[in-house]
Write a structure and sequence with these properties.
heterodimer; A: alpha/beta; Rossmann fold; 6-stranded mixed β-sheet; 4-stranded antiparallel β-sheet; 9 helices; 10 strands; about 25% strand; B: mainly alpha; two-stranded antiparallel sheet; globular; disordered N terminus
């Protein structure tokens, strides 16, 4: 059964159609890259999946359940997590606090329990903290835990954001341009992280990316968007030979 | 991960809960060392600590330009005064109701923000809310005694009359310690982290499963509760509640407490309350100079320490960096 299904998804802003009838499906543990020129509707498609944008038409199903129309926090709670194109970290919070915020739904403390410092609430908080530290250490960035996010380098921020998105062990992770602006060595590291997630945790990944070599190495399948429409959908071996894709990219 | 830096487990230093007991213990003997005038100023500082702590939740932690703080303060003060004068309640039983009225007004002030009215629009709307209330205090004469102000008899606590400023000091100190401790607990939990996540990136906060609207309301409500309690303390301290006490100048003072102390810092709110309350009092014998000195303090601090006086302490003692988790 498909993990995620998009059925004729359309998003219009006034007269502009940003996403025009996109249908695709994703299996558990699959890595799908979405590529396409600027303005092709890639990020809008992400926003539609995560509930940050409302659909004009179509349906989105996650584990056979409709998720379109749900508020972003509910989509997230169902197990669809994401990172943001220009970095979505909470800048004033430390790396550790960012990951803890990512664990929000899994720290089931109540208002009065917290307010009066009840032992149960404090134990839950402490357990979450050690879990968050563990996650950072697992990714090899435990030493950054107490640094404010805004003081981290671009590559470090990207790593923390991925750890934060993964903290709840979601079945589906959406990465919006994860490799852009990263040094080759860091890119390599990121590649390793994504591969490990897929292999060890069975997480499915959808990523938007311009770095074509990165896309070629990491993905099982590539979908090409142009003007809001899917113009190609195939393996990394097939897609570059597609005539429409060449036209969209090279303009002839 | 291969090639990763070695994992260090250096934990950030944090202020323990003992601070909340140690600091009050240290000031316990102070009332026996000072005269009545200084005692009054100390009591005023305690009122403004809660004014600052409450305001800081909304503008510092939640990061919203909502300026309903004087409205919340005035409502708390009037709620307490009216319950004492007209309903005959002993003062101490009005503290929680004053807080709850403040919380309700806080929720009311959060509604425009929930409808995506933010920044300057939210600022002017919430300021108008405060001015509207001032008009109501003046017009609701049967309850508030209008612009003459409401005279409130000395506060009662469990049958005891708190006639002296010294006795009020100890009651206020307990209230401040309890409310600051509760606020600290709230901020160092997923609730406080949710406030700041919303401040730093609202879309990302929602994508992390945080129901942002709910936390918006909660931050405003708790802020209102804290400031409402400060209002009840103010009534007990001055014994005379007038509409003039809750004007726009008072709002600037509240704003200055937070900014001079340090945004999103509990310790900062305490420092801001001390500095902003004592500075004008130091120059009381030089009329006209008061406002001048106060202005220079605010301008000077914000020019050289945009993160407030607490940043000066944090630079030297890292424990002043507030941490929003427990371990």
């Amino acid at each position: 059964m498909a993990l995620l299904e998009l059925d004729d998804v359309t998003v219009r802003y006034g007269g502009l159609t940003a996403v025009a009838g996109v249908s695709l499906s994703l299996d558990p543990g699959e890595v799908l890259a979405i590529i396409g020129p600027n303005g092709a509707g890639k990020t809008t498609l992400f926003n539609a999946i995560t509930g940050h944008t409302t659909l004009s038409a179509g349906a989105i199903r996650f584990r056979a359940e409709r998720i379109d129309g749900l508020a972003p926090y509910l989509v997230s709670a169902k197990g669809v997590r994401r990172t943001f194109q220009n970095g979505g970290l909470f800048g004033e919070l430390t790396a550790l606090e960012n990951v803890l915020a990512g664990l929000h739904t899994q720290v089931p403390t109540g208002f009065f329990g917290v307010l009066f410092g009840m032992p149960a609430a404090r134990a839950t908080e402490r357990a979450a903290t050690s879990r968050a530290r563990g996650l950072l250490e697992l990714m090899g960035i435990g030493h950054l835990a107490d640094q404010p996010a805004r003081e981290l380098s671009g590559g470090q921020q990207r790593m923390v954001e991925i750890v934060r998105a993964l903290a709840t062990r979601p079945p589906l992770l959406l990465l919006d341009e994860p490799a852009v602006g990263l040094a080759p060595a860091v890119r390599e590291q990121l590649l390793g992280v994504i591969r490990r997630l897929v292999r060890e945790e069975g997480i499915a990944v959808v990523l938007i990316e311009h770095a074509i070599e990165f896309v070629m190495t990491v993905s099982d399948r590539i979908v090409v968007l142009n003007d809001g429409k899917v113009i190609a959908d195939g393996t990394p071996a097939e897609v570059p030979r597609n005539r429409e894709v060449l036209e969209a990219y090279l303009g002839h | 991960m291969p090639g990763a830096a070695p994992v260090s487990v250096v934990r950030a230093p944090t202020l323990g809960r003992w601070v909340f007991l140690l600091v009050p213990l240290l000031v316990l003997p102070v009332p026996f060392l000072v005269n009545r005038y200084i005692q009054y100023v100390l009591n005023l500082i305690l009122v403004y600590v809660l004014v600052g702590v409450g305001f800081n939740i909304v503008i510092g932690n939640l990061g919203q330009l909502a300026f309903a703080n004087v409205a919340l303060f005035g409502l708390g003060a009037y709620a307490s005064g009216i319950l004492v004068v007209h309903a005959g309640w002993p003062w101490w039983t009005t503290i929680v109701p004053a807080g709850l009225i403040g919380a309700l007004a806080g929720i009311l002030a959060s509604l425009p923000a929930l409808r995506r009215i933010r920044l300057f629009y939210l600022a002017i709307m919430t300021m108008a809310f405060g001015e509207l209330l001032r008009w109501i205090y003046i017009r609701a004469e049967p309850l508030t005694n209008g612009s003459m102000g409401l005279a409130v008899p000395p506060p009662m606590l469990l049958g005891l009359r708190l006639a002296s400023d010294r006795s009020k000091f100890y009651v206020f100190l307990v209230l401040v310690v309890v409310v600051v401790l509760l606020t600290s607990s709230l901020l160092r939990s997923r609730f406080g982290r949710a406030f700041m996540a919303i401040r730093d990136n609202e879309l990302a906060a929602a994508a992390m499963g945080i129901p942002t609207d709910r936390y918006f309301i909660l931050a405003f409500a708790w802020s209102g509760f804290v400031v409402g309690v400060a209002g009840a303390m103010y009534t007990a301290l001055v014994g005379h509640v007038t509409p003039e006490a809750f004007n726009l100048l008072e709002l600037i003072l509240h704003f200055a407490v937070v900014m001079v102390g340090g945004l999103a810092s509990l310790a900062g709110s305490v420092i801001g309350a001390i500095v902003l309350t004592t500075t004008p009092e130091l120059f009381r014998s030089f009329p006209g100079v008061q406002e001048l000195v106060l202005s220079f303090v605010v301008i000077g601090v914000l020019l050289f320490l945009p993160r407030g006086l607490v940043s000066l302490l944090a630079r030297r003692w890292p424990v002043f960096h507030e941490r929003y988790y427990r371990e």
